[in-house]
Amino acid sequence: MVAELGHFALIVAMVVAAVQATVPLVGAARGADELIAVARPAALIQFLMAGVAFFALMYCFVQSDFSVLTVFQSSHSLKPLLYKVTGVWGNHEGSLLLWILILTGFGAAVAAFGTNLPPTLAARVLAVQAMIGVGFLAFILFTSNPFERVFPVPLEGRGLNPLLQDPGLAIHPPFLYLGYVGFSLAFSFAVAALIEGRVDPAWARWVRPWTLAAWCFLTTGITLGSWWAYYELGWGGFWFWDPVENASFMPWLAGTALLHSAIVVERRDTLKAWTILLAILTFSLSLLGTFIVRSGVLTSVHAFATDPARGLFILGFLVVVIGGSLALFAVRAPALKAGGLFAPISREGALVLNNLLLATACATVLLGTLYPLFLDALTGEKVSVGPPFFNATFGPLMVPLLVAMVVGPLLPWKRGDLRGALERLRFTFLVAASAGVTVYAMATDTSLAAIGGIILATWIILGGLRPLYERVFRGGVAGSAERLRALPRSAIGMAFAHCGIGVIVMGLTVLLTWQVERDQVMRVGDAMNVSGYTIVLRGVQSAAGPNYVAQRANFDVHRTRSEGLGPVLMTLHPEKRSYVDSPQVTTEAAIEPTVMGDLYVVVGDADGTGGYAVRGYFKPFVHWLWFGAALMVAGGVVSLTDRRHRVGAPSARKSRDPGALAGAHPSAAE
Amino acid sequence: MRPALAVPLVVFVVVAIALAVGLGLKPREIPSALIGKPVPTFALEPVQDFGPGLSSENLKGQVAIVNVFASWCVPCRVEHGLWAEVAKLGIPIYGLNYKDTPKNASAWLAQLGNPYSRTGADLGGRVGIDWGVYGVPETFVVDEHGMIQLKFIGPVDRAALDNQILPKVRELQSKAARAAG
């Protein structure tokens, strides 16, 4: 009954979306207010219906209603409640429903909060958003109905892939989707602007916070996925250049470029066509990611159960959405008038360089991801493009970007003075260079790349703080306290995000250079030395979980001494789990964070004579990766609370607070 | 319209064509490389009390179904009832018991019934690896020369049995009859 209600809600949502996709467009073209007025309530109803469908499916999962095919295929009555809930999106149908819920949610947000948008623009944005909605609703209803029943009703479900039964992974897809789908709004705004034939700073002021929010979600989602791979897959890798990872990384690169070019549109009213193109490409890459995951064109550890019919449907959808919007772009972009001019050495010039490098990096990843497919299509030869390709191409593209990201924010708009900016960075460079020299002098096993990485990371972290320093201390120490308080949130956010990149570069450099790996067969009582720690195997027991049995090893950790064992610093308990409902075995690494890095121990198979294969790692600075990513997201969030976004929001508040307007940029929206 | 603005569109068209071709290629079919190949050589003891044992020699001389099962595998339970029906049709069906304990496997067969005319206990999973098993249940159709002709991954339901497995068995049986006659 609940399942049928959910199915019905999806059908209603699709009908409403079809109305929303057409009527407001006609209204906006003819200037008919009553047709334009359809858009907002339609967007809200669509979201409501998607919500009903989503929670209906969640109800079926929580109740373990195995008469619903999706529940039967990916749930199990013994599964903990958390994983029954997250199991909703642990399969193709349910994750598609989550995607639709978020898509309609963003549309509803524009309908609810976009009251100060020009009415025709709002109508067109919502119509484009609904067109995407129609496509996805048709996809789910015609090829992937999550509410399909199965008869006879099975007594027990098949269970969720044990690798997915993990808190980190359970919340990773919603964040990824919030990111992917969040870019749909940038896309809808871009297409609406092309239809209107007008892009102005007000447009950018609207697009930028949504893009930034989507970017924060996507960054969080990618980081969670990477962190999960680190602690769950059992060998401490965190990035594999797998096609599905690339599918999330490409929109991130394009979205990062979009964030920066939208600043130029907002502040300087130029780079319009390029920004529109980036908005289209960013969401197109999100859609391409969906296609790669769900069509089976590329093999990947992440792929859902695949089905050529679904692949064909998404491909058709891609052709309509991406092909249609790019064709519209080709025809309409010349109508967008360019605004302010700028010299190559200027803030705008630096942002163009940022965009070129990010776009090239994105194209490289795209090429590497699709190359096996191209080759297979042309010659029938099957290859896989692995980390060596990406490390050799992506890294060199990033270096100039990372060097320049410190200089760019110090250049003024329109025309800058490169030499002057570099002189202001003399101190930063000296500190970075001496950090490199110090490490070279003190550390063993260094390489040129490691020293370069240390210098680069220090340069980015210190240089990232430089714009704040200059804003606060420009007029001397006097008054610096007030200037510190008056710092715009966007400047603080930028400093956070840029420093976050530096922190990640530092973490990567140290981790890849000085990580230690030990591998030995251990019997009870044996010891292994890992980077200053001695770990001793004390025993292996069986332990039962709710839906698995585990082999649990006990290790004592001591500080390594020349003779004898010191006191026990801590104990570690890595596990190997076998699940009752799946042949899959998972490793639960024991990870002990220390100030310098993680001690990471994995227990493997018994050799049958009382020995166990044990791998011990020391992962120096690995937490800097997660911390750097968190800094980037924090930067995005801080920047989102910037005054100009708050001022750009509900108009009611502005009229009561005229002082707030004085600092805001003039724009057509007000 | 400036031609440069159409470049993204052209690039996308090329990508879309490659994707369309790629849809037809199915990289996932690589694992079934065993199709048309002889079964791997093996000889296994039977599951306790459910003999005789199973070896690659037993798979020659008639068209047969080999079903990979295990007591810990819930979907195996779902499909198990269908194998009793297949056995009644007179089609030889052999059970490859994958990575199981002897006690659990025989308790399972005692509880659910034994449709298999021969069973092989693959305790360590070695034979399973040779067969390319990567998820249980899996089902193979082997022809009278001991060549693997069909591989079905996942639990067999009525539709799969009626539309894929039985037609394949009948096709191979009539081919064998023609060759013999």
The number of distinct structural domains of chain B comes to 1
The span between the termini of chain B is: 73 Å
Determine the mean pLDDT of chain A.
86
What's the CATH class of chain B, please? Alpha Beta
CATH architecture of chain B: 3-Layer(aba) Sandwich
Strand content of chain B: 15-25%
DSSP helix fraction of chain A: 55-70%
Count of all domains of chain A: 4
Distance between the termini of chain A: 49 Å
In sequence order, what are the helices and strands of chain B, one letter per element? HEEEHEHEHEEH
Biggest sheet record of chain A = 6 strands, antiparallel
Unreliable segments of chain B (pLDDT under 50, ≥5 consecutive)? 27-31
Structural class of chain A: alpha+beta
Q: What is the CATH topology assignment of chain B? A: Glutaredoxin
Major pleated sheet of chain B: 5 strands, mixed
Class by alpha and beta content of chain B: alpha/beta
Largest interface by Cβ-Cβ < 8 Å: A-B, 43 and 32 residues
What does the model show?
The complex is a heterodimer of chains A (about 675) and B (about 180). In chain A, strands 2, 3, 4, 5, 6 and 7 form a six-stranded antiparallel sheet that branches. In chain A, strands 1-10-9-8 form a four-stranded antiparallel sheet. Chain A is about 65% helix and about 10% strand. In chain A, helix 7 packs across helix 9, helix 15 packs parallel to helix 18 and helix 18 packs antiparallel against helix 20. In chain A, strand 8 and strand 9 form a beta hairpin. Chain A has four domains: about 160 residues, no CATH class; about 230 residues, no CATH class; about 130 residues, no CATH class; about 110 residues. Chain A contains 24 helices and ten strands. By secondary structure, chain B is of the alpha/beta class. Chain B has one domain: Glutaredoxin (3-Layer(aba) Sandwich), CATH 3.40.30.10. Chain B is about 40% helix and about 20% strand. Chain B contains five helices and seven strands. A five-stranded mixed sheet of chain B has the order 5-4-3-6-7. Chain B has a two-stranded antiparallel sheet with strand order 1-2. In chain B, helix 2 links the parallel strand 3 and strand 4. The interface between A and B is large, with 43 and 32 residues.
